[in-house]
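Quick one, T. Sequence first:
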Amino acid sequence: MMSVQAPRAVVMIRPGRFRSNPETAGDNAFQTFASAPPQDVAARAAREFDDAVARLRAEGITVHVFRDDTDQTPDSVFPNNWFSTHAGGHVAIYPMFAPNRRRERRWDVIEMLKARYRVQDVIDFSGLEQDGLALEGTGAMVLDHVGRVAYAARSNRADPVILERFCTQFNYEPMAFHAADSRGCAVYHTNVMMAVGSRVALVGLELITDPARREDVRARLQETGREVIALSEAQVRAFAGNAIELEGAAGPVLAMSARAVASLTPAQTARIEAHARILPLDIPTIETAGGSVRCMIAGIHLSPRVTHSDRTAA
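Structure tokens:
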């Protein structure tokens, strides 16, 4: 049976000329800049990507890979920011904050989705970039597809006007909050501090600045049947919140980086694995761009098309 929360098919973009994006460094405290030659950095990132894809496919997860060989889109490895898919055949396209990230949108990805899956409509919010507004997909929002809640840390990347429009269009309840680290730096994307699976949620609760709102988030997650695992600020910085539950051939897996896994305590690991097996992916070079495993994966929450050969075989 198909999981509402955990997709079994994903889109990933293979980076050809990966590098840390100077246009996003101003509000992404997770970014660093490598000192190695650019071609070496790009080659390492490509190897990490290929290894991650192989590990996901070995779990029985369908991975649709698209290549990006341009030097105009340094963050293209993070496609979940510019589109999302939703049960019932709906696709959303989002406005991006940094000008060079707006070039990441690819219609060949949308056309593949239409050809391979049942797509009823494509809702395009990207025109709101002209008004200086941004809502960077499932980076800016962490979506609970079961409880129909859109969690959003307020930032340059999550405009409240578009958040309300998205929630009205796609039938989610918006739950926005302020989140910042101990230095007062705002969390740039909700998905670096929060991951919601089918039965478990990892959340950097201490980064939510309003104690009452912090408890609202915890309570809402518990009401929808999740075991809430609180992450420390250090664990959030290690990308422990940047995880995604996927439906593998042998059951649910929680994909996260090897660095993130190493930051977890044994007790946290045991609690997570009571609900989903942890799948560590080693991507240290890609993480220098300020995102991790969740950012690399755009889940497909659409029904596959039944082809003529499928009907004949049946």
